Structure formats: C-alpha cells, structure tokens
Amino acid sequence: MRTEITLTRPDDFHLHLRDGAMLEGIAPETARDFARAIIMPNLVPPVVTGAQAAAYRKRIMAALPGSNFTPLMTLYLTEASDPADITAAHAAGIIHAVKLYPAGATTNSDSGVRDFDRVRGTLEAMAQAGVPLCVHGEVTDSDIDIFDREAVFIERVLDPIRRAVPGLRVVMEHVTTQEAVEYVQAADAGLAATITTHHLLINRNHILAGGIRPHYYCLPVAKREVHRQALVRAATSGDPRFFLGTDSAPHADDTKESACGCAGCFTATNTMPVLAQVFENAGALDRLEAYVARYGADFYGLPRNTGTLTLTRQDTPVSFPRRIDTGAGPVTVFEPGIAVHWQVTARA
Ligand code: DOR
Ligand code: ZN
C-alpha cells in the first residue's frame, strides 16, 4: 500500500472566495494547498465587467499577503453583458471564463439569465474568442422537482445552447447526476465537467436521514447513491473531461443552521486529504494527480503548475478543524463521513 504521494500542485476549477471579512478568513484555506482557482463571480453585486474582476482580484491578493496563489477570475453573465468587454478582459488575461447562472438557481443568482436568446450574441462572441462558459446546470421552474433540475437543464437549455453556438467551450459545473456524466462522455472535446469533493461523498440521505444536516445542503443538491457512484467512477476514470472544481462555498454557520439555510459545503480546508482517500478507496490513487493538476489546466489552456504537494498516509484516521473562525462568523468545515488516513505533509 502506498503511504506517500507527491503531486503537481493542484488547481481548484470552481471556488467561492466571497469578499470582505469572509474572504480574509477563508482565502488562506485554499491558498495553502492550491496554486490557482477559478473564482466564482456571484458577489453582491455580481462581478460583471472586466474592471470589476480586476478590482476583485486585487482584494483577493490583498487577503493573501506573501502568497503566490493565482486567482483565475470569471465574469457573471447577465442579459446586459457587453461582449466587447468580455472578450477584451479575456484577451488581457484578466478573466478566464464567464459564468452562467440561470436566474434564481442558487446563491446570488438573481442577476442571472432568464431568456437564453438574449445572451446568444454574447455566447457567439465568446465562442469566437475562445472564452469558456462555466454553467450552473439547473432549471429553475418551480414545477420541476429539485432532484430533476440538472437532468432537465441538459435537455432544455444546455444541449440547445451547444447546438446553437457550436464552437463554445463549456464546463458543466458541479455535475451531480449519471445523466450529466453520460452527456459529457458522449460529447466532443468542447465540453468538460467539474466534480466537487462533497458530491463524491454524500448522497441525499446524508442531508435528510436521521435529522436534517444543513452543512450537507448545497446546490445542485446531492442525489441518490447511484448518482454518487457514477460521479466517483467519472472522477477516478482517467477521462480528461472530468476534473476538480470543489465549489467550496462558505456561509457563516448561523446562516446555514437556520429555518431557511443557505446552500454550500465548505471543503477548502480538507479537500486534498479527502480526495486522496476517495481515490485510494476506488483503487485509483495513481489518477489523483491528473484529476487535480492536469486535466483542468489542459482544458483551460493553462500551463501546469511547477510546485508540488506531498500527502502521507497514516494508520490512524486524521482529524481536521471542525470550523474556521472568520471575521464574518464561524464556518463549518465539511465532515466527509469516512475515515481519512491522508494528510498534506509537504508543500513545495
Ligand atoms: O451550494 C452552492 N453554493 N451552490 C451554488 O451554486 C452556489 C454556492 C454559493 O455561492 O453559496
Ligand atoms: Zn459554485
């Protein structure tokens, strides 16, 4: 059995860093293990223009003094987005992708897209300029069951968009269903998917059986066990179209432990040891490096990182901090619910 593994420094291709005191409190949790991350733009107000992305990038760097972490900025797609601003920000290296939130789908998505025809011109300009589109893949119709919203989105929204704008490079973010895995597997090279750490570990029973567990509630909501298993197979398969995007999404504990709790699992602190355990349990430890440090960089046309991260296996399970104290309140760290024997022992 392997007891030590040294990987190229990983990247997180889907991360929420927030702003202000929360940003200051949680940014070091990602910067410790990761070289770069795709930063979600769902602030209030959202990050819509290149100038706003550049300003947000500065605030992130200011929260990480002395760190060589690289935030890869994104813009929030609205029906009023300016295609020229998007392509200019991309050409200047200020942004690496644009995020599509269907209006009302999740946290701070009110400014998102209602009528997909109204963003067609922007998507065409992005396809032309090679700007990837990151997609929150859920319909928002109140008559569609929340557990079906991802599968219905593929059929009603994603597939029509990809047919209408054929050159568009798309990342289906945080896939949670077998249907999404199969859709990506059947597509050409312009489509990829990120998978979170938590969706590799929890199914819907973890949220609802034996008491309601708000820290396992996120969007898209975890599905049945068969879907979790499909995600583990995809992540550990060595298929370069699936790579890590943690969707680590901090909310102060009082806003999660509430009558109407916020969606999001905070996994930044322990993602790498937890993933090492998931890959070991699947007999795929040798595929972990590509999943966290190669496939995503390749899809985004980024150079691979030069640093390394070493994880060491110990016989007794490792424990992680239960919560991170921030100026915006305590944030509970994702509890993986399995024995994790790995920990990060060196960073270079
Ligand atoms: O669980 C989630 N939390 N899903 C999202 O799509 C957004 C995120 C957040 O920003 O809190
Ligand atoms: Zn997210």
Fold and architecture overview:
By secondary structure, the chain is of the alpha/beta class. It has a single domain, classed as Alpha-Beta Barrel (TIM Barrel), CATH 3.20.20.140. The protein contains twelve helices and 13 strands. The strands form three sheets. Strands 2-3-4-5-6-7-8-9 form an eight-stranded parallel beta sheet. A three-stranded antiparallel beta sheet has the order 1-10-13. The protein has a two-stranded antiparallel ribbon with strand order 11-12. Helix 2 links the parallel strand 3 and strand 4 (70-76). Helix 3 runs parallel beside helix 4 (120-129). The protein is globular and about 55 Å long. The structure holds (4S)-2,6-dioxohexahydropyrimidine-4-carboxylic acid and zinc ion (ZN). The site of (4S)-2,6-dioxohexahydropyrimidine-4-carboxylic acid has 11 residues, from loops.
Q: What is the fold's blueprint, element by element?
A:
Blueprint: E1 4-8, E2 11-15, H1 20-31, E3 36-39, H2 50-62, E4 70-76, H3 83-91, E5 95-100, H4 120-129, E6 133-135, H5 149-164, E7 170-172, H6 178-186, E8 191-195, H7 204-208, H8 225-235, E9 242-244, H9 253-256, H10 271-281, H11 288-293, H12 295-299, E10 308-313, E11 323-326, E12 329-332, E13 342-347
Parallel strand pairs: 2-3, 3-4, 4-5, 5-6, 6-7, 7-8, 8-9
Antiparallel strand pairs: 1-10, 10-13, 11-12
